[in-house]
Recover the amino acids of this structure.
């Protein structure tokens, strides 16, 4: 078991927020996460900030921003971490490495992004910074176009799975109704998600609007502590296992729908934890687009390649299924403020394991899996969380 534990957290609403920038968003969560953990700012040994930015705002040097709202952090070492859409998990794993290497006992992780201040077309171009621009910058539809191509390739190889994608969208929107932090708290139902209409047009065929995650603002924070500190506090969610695996950045140089890096990250984490996928109580996975969630079922070992549709048809990943996936509504309903996403996933799983997830709660949750990826399954992070106090 990893020698670090989550001991406190905070989570802002996700959506189109009035907060002007990431500085304001971080101010929502940094101090409140410390308060939730019962930790004084002066006791924090390191601050790890996850922000993608890449053009969303002119202010950079983001690692220095939490201290503006929490003055007690003014002289605490701080660093900004970036790894595309996996930025939040990258910050978490970096904080754990800091603790496990003996450099500190307590770390504050803050993930944030302000996306909605930019016009839609500009957002699409900024997000293409998470692709290989030399080859993929001109793909129509921006990053949605990238995943639209993945969906086309998947359908050509394994058959049209548009209905299964609509079921995934409908599942996640239904789950999102119960998430007080979610950007979109509306149950659209399968028929709406499966039908092309004025309100649900193609965005990047075959992906429809309901197959795409939302442009969002938001922030989330975690306090992570060494075991001897964690045992003195009110709660402790340990990392039973964690793993990262990369894949080659250009889609042209790999099988784009194999998600081989994701498969390797899952396999390594489960091996390190002495677990199988069936041992998990729930999973929060990276459904930036519904085709991503479908392929991730295969990468995590729920189905063979091309057979993720069986997981959908059998209801395995519904909230009342054998392995609930995205009980929070996922990125699809919750929103996807890039730097905050991985931190949010860990917060929501910690809430589940503490029995504090409210209407999202999965009864008897013991082990929670998190999968957060950067780009088109390029940077792949898996965490398995377990309550130890």
């Amino acid at each position: 078991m990893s020698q670090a534990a989550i001991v406190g957290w905070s989570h802002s609403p996700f959506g189109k927020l009035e907060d002007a920038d990431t500085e304001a968003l971080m101010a929502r969560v940094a101090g409140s996460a410390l308060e939730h953990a019962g930790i004084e700012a002066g006791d924090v040994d390191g601050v790890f900030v996850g922000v993608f930015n890449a053009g969303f705002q002119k202010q950079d040097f983001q690692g220095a921003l939490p201290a503006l709202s929490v003055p007690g952090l003014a002289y605490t070492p701080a660093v900004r971490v970036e790894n595309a859409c996996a930025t939040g998990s990258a910050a978490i794993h970096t904080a754990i490495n800091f603790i496990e290497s003996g450099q500190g006992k307590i770390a504050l992780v803050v993930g944030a992004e302000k996306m909605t201040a930019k016009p839609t077309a500009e957002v699409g171009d900024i997000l293409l910074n998470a692709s290989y621009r030399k080859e993929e910058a001109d793909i129509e539809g921006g990053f949605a176009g990238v995943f639209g191509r993945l969906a086309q390739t998947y359908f050509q190889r394994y058959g049209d799975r548009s209905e299964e994608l609509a079921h995934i969208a409908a599942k996640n929107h239904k789950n999102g109704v119960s998430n007080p932090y979610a950007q979109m708290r509306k149950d659209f139902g399968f028929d709406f998600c499966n039908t092309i209409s004025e309100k649900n047009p193609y965005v990047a065929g075959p992906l429809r609007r309901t197959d795409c995650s939302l442009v969002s603002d938001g922030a989330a924070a975690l306090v992570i502590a060494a075991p001897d500190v964690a045992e003195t506090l009110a709660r402790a969610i340990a990392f039973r296992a964690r793993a990262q695996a990369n894949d080659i950045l250009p889609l042209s140089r790999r099988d784009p729908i194999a998600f081989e890096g994701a498969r390797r990250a899952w396999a390594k984490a489960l091996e390190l934890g002495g677990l199988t996928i069936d041992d998990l109580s729930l999973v929060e996975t990276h459904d930036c687009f519904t085709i991503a969630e479908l392929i991730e079922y295969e990468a995590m070992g729920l189905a063979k390649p091309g057979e993720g549709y069986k997981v959908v048809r059998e209801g395995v990943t519904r909230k009342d299924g054998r392995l609930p996936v995205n009980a929070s509504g996922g990125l699809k309903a919750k929103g996807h403020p890039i730097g905050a996403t991985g931190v949010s996933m860990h917060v929501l799983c910690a809430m589940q394991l503490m029995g504090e997830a409210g209407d999202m709660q999965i009864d008897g949750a013991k082990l929670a899996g998190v999968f957060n990826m950067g780009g088109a399954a390029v940077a792949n992070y898996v965490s398995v969380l377990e309550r130890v106090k």
Q: What stands out?
A: The longest strand covers residues 237-246. The longest helix spans residues 142-158. The radius of gyration is 19 Å.
